[in-house]
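Run log, item B.
One chain of 258 residues. Sequence copied directly from the ordering sheet:
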Amino acid sequence: MLIASWNVNSVRARIENILTYIKETNPDILMLQEIKTEEKNFPKEAFKEIGYNSFIFGQKSYNGVAFLTKVKINNICLDFIKDPKKQSRIITGEINLKVKKIKIINIYVPNGNPIDSEKFDYKIKWLEMFIKNIKNIIKKKESIIISGDFNIIPEEIDCYNAKKFENDALFKIEIRKKYRELINLGLNDVFRHFYKNKIEYTYWDYFAGSWQKNNGLRIDHFLVTSNLIENLKKININKKPRSKQKPSDHTPIELEIN
């Protein structure tokens, strides 16, 4: 099974790139973040024509997450956490992989900048609520796949210039500790599971030639519970969509599981 995740930075603005990506890659499930549209304006029909059902948690102009899927997803949930700002940032469901039932969680974590504002406080609070609920699921020994735009740079190796991001909400120690809390619950960063020291990025700013200079960040992640380690086959950061005309500033990450 191929599960992909991609912050598309507006599903309608990137529709041609998304359709091309799906036709080239053929994922079983594609998790989208930052769709920037309400459900009524989501291009469901375009995806249905190529064999994908859509499950959407959107809002007007900002945020928003969705599943595009060729396989059955059960128990779709839009209220995994009680977001104090009522923003559309998380959608969950359940899939079957042979005899295993897996909870899949698609997230778009708040950016949190600037750090001396309520936006940073909101990011901390959001992550605390998320971690609390994940902890409760793990206590039940359930299988979990979490993916999406975490807006977190886990380590210096995941950033082209760590010094530059010392006071950025993506790299502040308080935020990185939250990521570490997730890992300490028994989750595994799949990219680091396969590639301990590899430098590779999932995001490049639109400005200052960041893409051309490879001035990137690894802020899009797949985390899985330890009971799925044996099912992992490979993970890939697919840079091709970032090189397209009118690209998202993120590129897809792809997890293959058996």
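Observations after the first pass:
- The chain has a mean pLDDT of 97.
- Residues 2-257 form a domain with the Deoxyribonuclease I; Chain A fold (CATH 3.60.10.10).
Flagged for discussion on Thursday.
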